[in-house]
C-alpha cells in the first residue's frame, strides 16, 4: 500500500505524521485562498481564524509538498486518521494529479489526496468566503487559539513557500497587510536590518508568479497540530 497526500498550508512546514518521502511540486487548476474558518487550532468559535483552502481556477497552479506513506495498511490508516482529525474543517478529500518541477504534461503522481472544502456557507459551516484584503488581515492579526496566533500561520506559510523557492503572491500580499495592521495596533514589527533580512541564493520565484518584496518575517515559533 502507498498513500500520497498533498499539503499546501501548514502541512508544507509541519506535516506532523511519519512519512517516507517528500516531494516539492504543484497541482494544476487550483489556487490557495484564505476562505476557511479554523475554530480549534488558531482560532475559536467566537473569533475564528482564517486559514487557506483551495479554489478551483482554470489555468492556476498551486505549489506545495506531497508526502508518501509506505509500509502497509495500518501505517496508512494511522496517517489518514491523524490528517482527518487535524484537517477536520475540510469537508472533502479530493484526488488530484501532482507534478514535479519541470514536468508540465504528464503528472508525476495520480490519485494524490488533498483536503479541500465546499465553497458554500449553507452546506459547509467552516466556509467563510472571500473578504476584502484589509478585513482578512484584521481577522488574521487578532485571532488566536490553542495552537497559537493566526498571524503566525500566515507568516510561517510565507516563509515555507520562500524556503521551497515558490513564493505565492497572495500569501505575501496578505502577510504584508497583516504587518500593517499589527503596526497600527501597536504590537510592533521589527524593522528589517542587514543582519536579520531574509537571504538566499536567489529571491526570484521559480513559479510563473510575479516576484514581490518580502518584508521581514517575525519570529513565529508556534506549531500546528
Automatic annotation (TrEMBL):
<keyword id="KW-0963">Cytoplasm</keyword>
<protein>
    <recommendedName>
        <fullName>glutathione-specific gamma-glutamylcyclotransferase</fullName>
        <ecNumber>4.3.2.7</ecNumber>
    </recommendedName>
</protein>
<dbReference type="InterPro" id="IPR006840">
    <property type="entry name" value="ChaC"/>
</dbReference>
<keyword id="KW-0456">Lyase</keyword>
<dbReference type="GO" id="GO:0006751">
    <property type="term" value="P:glutathione catabolic process"/>
</dbReference>
<dbReference type="GO" id="GO:0005737">
    <property type="term" value="C:cytoplasm"/>
</dbReference>
<comment type="similarity">
    <text>Belongs to the gamma-glutamylcyclotransferase family.</text>
</comment>
<dbReference type="GO" id="GO:0061928">
    <property type="term" value="F:glutathione specific gamma-glutamylcyclotransferase activity"/>
</dbReference>
<dbReference type="Pfam" id="PF04752">
    <property type="entry name" value="ChaC"/>
</dbReference>
<dbReference type="InterPro" id="IPR013024">
    <property type="entry name" value="GGCT-like"/>
</dbReference>
<dbReference type="InterPro" id="IPR036568">
    <property type="entry name" value="GGCT-like_sf"/>
</dbReference>
